[in-house]
Amino acid sequence: MRIAAIADVHGNALALEAVVAHIRASAPDLIVNLGDLVSGPFDPARSADMQIALDCPTIAGNHERQLLAGDTGFSDAFARPHLTSAHLDWIASLPGTLELAGGEVFACHGSPAGGDLEYLLEDVSSGRPTLDTADAIGTRLAGIGKASLVLCAHTHIPRIATSRGVLVVNPGSVGMPGYRDTTPVAHVMEAGSPHARYAIIDRLARGWAVGLHAVPYDFEAAARQAEQAGRDAVAYSVRTGRMPPA
After folding, report:
1. Pairing status of strand 97-100 against strand 105-108
2. CA dist., res. 223 & res. 220, Å (int)
3. Where are the alpha helices (DSSP H) in the chain?
4. How confident is the model over 81-103, as pLDDT tens digits?
5. Distances in Å between the alpha carbon of 14 and those of 17, 18, 148, 166?
6. Buried b (16+ CB within 10 A) or exposed e, 205-218
7. What is the DSSP letter of 58?
8. pLDDT tens profile 40-90
9. DSSP 150
10. Which end of the chain has the smaller Cβ count within 10 Å, N or C?
11. In which region does residue 115 sit, left (phi positive, over 0), alpha (psi from -120 to 50) or beta (all else)?
């Protein structure tokens, strides 16, 4: 079995287009979309159309929940008026988690135990993400059943880790390589390059093999979309993979 995992598109249709083309060359058996689909200062409607057309297992992230609830944060407020009722109906139909491959694979946006806002692999108490301890990660894996592979997202940081015999893969963000947040403490997330990210996971006789991919696309065109929406910090991150100095 070959699985392609994408996450955190955030409405960046240009990045998604490049990633989907790269994925097709790998001929996966399954594409899994891990949420935060359309909320971002890019092209929400086109990105929604593209993700619907993938017709793949897709889960809702925190931004889908916020979007439907009428959240006034910029990314959700920007996306909402660009979306049709069909887009919103599709978003409302999405589950928060999925079990795939007969329960061998568990997909979530944040963490299985803590919901769509909890980081599964990272400790951000220093203000920047570091890999958390195996025990801390293990407690957040409660509820995965018999899964040996957990696919997660939310941090925008590509990462692979193991805990309690479970392999955890975060493919990174397709469309937004950096952001700042204040919860649970003030912190910054930076992928370090502007590439669109995704993962390929292969089931081998001895376990799961993982490839983390970084795909170039027209960064400048996406950055200009963010600037036109008034999001200069996002534009900076799309050009550089880093956030501007605070």
Report:
1. antiparallel
2. 5
3. 13-26, 44-54, 62-69, 74-79, 85-92, 134-139, 219-228, 232-240
4. 999 999 999 999 999 999 999 99
5. 5, 7, 33, 33
6. eeebebebbbbebe
7. B
8. 999 999 999 999 999 999 999 999 999 999 999 999 999 999 999 999 999
9. E
10. C
11. left
